[in-house]
Task: structure prediction
Amino acid sequence: MTPKPFSIEHKQLKRCDLFTPHGRIDSSTAPQLEEALKSVMKEGRYKFVINLSDVDFLSSAALRVLISTTKECRKFRRGDVYLAELPDKLKEVFDLAGLDELFRFFETEAEAVGSF
Result:
């Protein structure tokens, strides 16, 4: 089975920016995610919801992007990064890496967006 190509959907909402990546986020695709997030931060927006429901793999490079983006967003209490709709296998990655304390996880995208 060939993996689906990586892509990112982005929507600017009233309360926050919503990102929905599709496919694997590994060392070759993590820079695309990082660039998408950074381009919104350059516009002065720091409240992000990332819906991971259609992501089947997260590498350490992907985790690094999420951690550095979260730190940047929380600087000066500007915003935060909320993660929504994580498949169990990805939630396990965060638990094993000890990152479950760093992020806020939401069952649904709507809950995450509504929390801002």
Observations:
- The chain has one domain: 7-114.
- The mean pLDDT is 96.
- The chain has four helices and six strands.
